[in-house]
Amino acid sequence: MPRSATVRDLRNRFPKIRKLLETEGEVVLTERGKARYRLTLYTPAHSAKEPPPKDYMARIKRFQPKPMSRAAAKAFDKDWRGER
Fold it and tell me: Does this model's pTM top 0.85?
């Protein structure tokens, strides 16, 4: 059977309640002589794998324009200049 404590004990003597909780695993809080709340130790559901670190340089390079060859740059420049 879990140990019990009052709400006042929880407010005023928390370290004592915490030790009870760590040793017993469960503490029932009473309020005005009636059991009202149940404290249990927190256990995470499951540890999810940590996501891999983000490669920001690869993401930037993916959106960068591809470099132009020298011949393509000359053709582009010639096309935009027109007959000047």
Answer: no
